């Protein structure tokens, strides 16, 4: 089996960056004083109706606190807290947000972002950074980001744009048009000093899944990810471990030298070690997940466990039971992807 690199060699030092070096002028807060309380009954913006808005803002001596910032819309309530110290050296910024039920099909077009995704997203973040530019802040970022979605849909064109190399490798004859069911999306990143490490990383559709671990160094803009894509067609499961590394601006995709079972075990161990897991939630699913990697069993517990981690330990929606597979030619598609025919 041979998996070719999807990109040329890594960029040399001084190459282009992905994170822009834009100024974040928090020091200008020192010149302002404000106390603001605002309530909004109905706000129509971006083709959406936003209701029950509330904002409380205080700015004194270069210190800003906006708490709460909250409004109902796009399927649920979105709440934020923002704190900044413009007189600190360097200035600091803390942002936390929670949106437990966001209707992506309504929100993305309203924000002027590409659509093609539907489902209810549970998102939460608590991030802090210091610096005078966006790049400086990214290099010292601390905190967490969690995204969880069950039973959504995604346009195949968007899926190809995000993960086209993996999809074409596993399923070279898969449809190129229409949409695909997303059984679950679970992602939780924990950042420390600019290095964001995965505590949960799983994308599962009706015909394939990708389990992952690793980290992204935002300061150096380097990737160090291990992915285990697995196709599920015609009752056959086959996993192909890959490594994604290199620069953010030019990532490389290559075969993981470990086999599927050992790569899968290493990924799950790394995910478990990188989170506080007093109840052993992830460890309890290890054997079942390895069975999935090798094409045995279903993925209910794996989705449920990863979604729980992505939500920071909270319970929430899990995927409906998978429909029976009734596809033809699955093995042939897999072999053609593996052999690059």
Automatic annotation (TrEMBL):
Q: Which GO terms describe its cellular component?
A: plasma membrane
Give one Pfam hit by family name: AsmA
AsmA domain: which residues? Answer: 20-199
Transmembrane ranges, per UniProt, are: none
Q: What InterPro entries is this protein classified in?
A: AsmA, AsmA-related
**One Gene Ontology term from the biological process aspect of the record:** regulation of protein targeting to membrane
Protein name stated in the entry? AsmA domain-containing protein
Recorded source organism is Roseomonas mucosa
Lineage of the species this protein comes from? Bacteria, Pseudomonadati, Pseudomonadota, Alphaproteobacteria, Acetobacterales
